[in-house]
Amino acid sequence: MEERKKYTGVELMGSAPVGTALIRLALPMMIAMLAQSIYSMTDMYFIGQTKDPNMVAAVALVNPLFMVSQALGNIFATGGSSYISRMLGAQKNDEARRTSVVSFYTAFGIGALLSVFLVIFKTPLLRLIGASDATYGPANNYFSIVAVFIAFASSGAVMSGHMRSEGATKMAMTVQLVGIGLNIILDPILILKLEMGTAGAAWATVAGQAVAYCVGMRYFLTKKSLLSVNPKEYKPNREMMKQVLSIGIPAGISNIIMSVSQILGNRILASYGDHVVAGNGVHMRVTSLFFMFVFAFVMGYQPFAGYNYGAKQFVRLRKGFKLTLIFSTSLCIVGFVILRLFGANFIKFFIDDPQTIEAGTAIMNVFCFALPFVGPQVTLMVSFQAFGKPIHSMIITTGRQLLFYVPLLFTLNHFFGFAGYTWTQPTADMLTTGIAVVLGISILKIMRGEDESDLARVS
């Protein structure tokens, strides 16, 4: 009956059977990510039902700009969560609480400043990311609405990260499902019935985020959490900020670099036609399903790894790492097979435009070769984040796009044209995973408890 025992979040990470702990931590995240993918694809589906490739292309063009807000949230969601898990494992609950407050309000403030910047420089930014005369209008309609609410999106991501850090993954799932569910309900009403187009998609997104935000705040305000959002506990200190930023900044920079990479890629694709940008947008929504599944499972492993590293429970740590590596890699292989066999059918489901379907299918048929390399790469990257190893995680998180993707993007496109573009991401992932495996040798030392560089701080 051990498997059915109820555990608190901290007990789950520290004393439950490893397989049980990983499943219970990861499953709510995987359900939430599945819902997120369904929402993302539903959003694209209803925009596609307008039969206007320019609207589809517009959303694809604007999306990378809002990855910047995710990057800001990711700094404090990833960095704060890593430090919080280690502090909880070391029984330093007060420091964990203060870290949650500092991370939350700092992310909100930076998000508000970013909103002001995006609104002021909206027109040049839209032109910079490749909006043509045909796509500028729908891109502007979407951008103008979502940009105003970035502070809530950023701090909302921090709340979800902090829930995971204390093992409350079911609550994190609930928050996401509430917002996504409302978004999915509003999409057909606003986009099609009220004929609001991309503006309707934006308002559906904002409404979902607002409701999810309120649910998340209620969780922290009703004292169900070990953590807090009480501004009176906003008390940063040097060690806290060092730990949060050393892990969070590389993760945030990775998101920003990924955003810039997508913008550069869209600009190149725009030279082949707006229908190619639209096809790429549809392809990315479909393939993100498999990336999100893998990432969700590994994010369930992250608080487990951080807690047990802080508690010096290295036998549990080693077993958890092994199980996560096996599962994430297996899931990626399954994803590769499905996309390779049925990718074209997925593209056709979303939009009835022959040129868009042809372009999206061509990109997906090659892109899927990146998937088998993602499982090991993400597992190793998140392990370094959980252990508080900023240099190692930074090399992996930034290397994928900055060291490989961007140079390959221009080189392969220059010599091989559109076919070269399609091979950019798979090649970058193969090279990045190679580096991650080499760096991962040091993980064996960490999981044997032989690396004392960080253990002294959590003793």
Describe this structure in words.
The chain is an all-alpha fold and 459 residues long. It has one domain (2-458). Helices cover 84% and strands 0% of the residues. Helix 6 (133-146) packs parallel to helix 9, helix 10 runs parallel beside helix 15 (390-422) and helix 14 (371-386) runs antiparallel to helix 15 (390-422). The longest helix has 37 residues, at 53-89. It is globular, with a radius of gyration of 21 Å.
Summarize, please.
The protein has 459 residues and is mainly alpha-helical. Helix content is 84%, strand content 0%.
Uncertain parts: 452-459
Taken as a percent bin, the fraction of beta residues is under 5%
Shape: globular
Mean pLDDT: 83
- Helix/strand structural class: mainly alpha
Order of helices and strands: HHHHHHHHHHHHHHHHH
Total beta strand runs:
0
User: In this structure, how is the largest beta sheet organized?
Assistant: none
Q: What layout of secondary structure does this protein have?
A:
Elements: H1 9-14, H2 18-48, H3 53-89, H4 93-120, H5 122-128, H6 133-146, H7 150-165, H8 169-193, H9 197-221, H10 238-270, H11 274-310, H12 314-350, H13 354-367, H14 371-386, H15 390-422, H16 424-447, H17 455-458
